[in-house]
Amino acid sequence: MVSGEGSPAATDSGKPPSEEMLDRAEVTSIFLKSLSHPARLVILCRLAEGPAAVGELEMMLALPQAVVSKQLARLREDKLVTARRIGRSISYSLSEDRTSRVVAMLHKEFCGEA
Q: What predicted TM-score, i.e. pTM, was given to this entire model?
C-alpha cells in the first residue's frame, strides 16, 4: 500500500486530519455565532476602526447600557474583544489578529459606506 492511502496520517497534534478539522470547525462555529447578532456585528465593525468606550457604543447603537453591556460580555466571553479600564471608563478593542483580519474584511464589505 502506498503511503497516504488507507488511513490518513496523523498531524503534528497526533490527531487524524479529520479530527483536527472538526476541532477547528467547532472554534469557527463559536466565532461565527458571535458575529451573528446585529448589535455585536456593529460593535465589532466600530472596533475595527479603533478602541471605543462603552458610552460611545451605547450612543452609536441607540440601545440601553444593559443591552450593550450584555453584547460586550458575550464578545469578551468568546474572546473577540478585550476591555481596558481607563479611569472610570472602560475601553474595548478587538482582541487578536485573527479577529481583526476577519472583522476588517466584514467592515470593508458590509459596514463601510456603500
A: 0.76
